[in-house]
Amino acid sequence: MAFRTIAAGLLVACVAQCAMAAETNTSAELANLFKEDQADRKAQEIDWSVVGARDAERERRVKALIAADALKSGMDYLHAAMILQHAHAPEDHLLAHELCVIAIAKGEHRAKWLAAASLDRFLTGIDRPQRFGTQYQSKGRTDPPVLLPVDPAVTDALRREMSVPTLAEAKRQETEYAKEFEERKKRAGAR
Question: What is the per-residue pLDDT across 24-37, written as a single tens digit (0 to 9) for each?
Fold first, then answer.
């Protein structure tokens, strides 16, 4: 019994130490690129001409880090994937998805949602229905964002496993986006 207790204690200590090592092996540069990427998307009004140029530079740097085999931790893969998910080319969205798969394999389960979203973005980028229902798009400045077509074969159980909303929740979000859009339009007209 004492041997089992000691063995269990060593296992817990080893897991904790491995988790700490994974955190310390996370690239500070990738973490900073990720932080900048997210900060660019928090403004009320986003100047996409400015953000687009920053995105392109971050994408170039992430690809250079990938080519240099600099991604080590699950968090590195997640950070790189998020940046590439904001690219314009479907190939970059597919690479983001692949990076998420690696992040998940390395124990970074927060990458599940992004794995689904990047796959959806890839599919919509090649004019195919998305699988998980994470992508919305507006036809223009005068139209609210709408949920892009979704493959009906994907179940809500699979969506839950990937940490994404159910299809009904995605459709409710579409309705919420439409309400917010109309409210912003009314406020802009009242000025």
Answer: 588 999 999 999 99
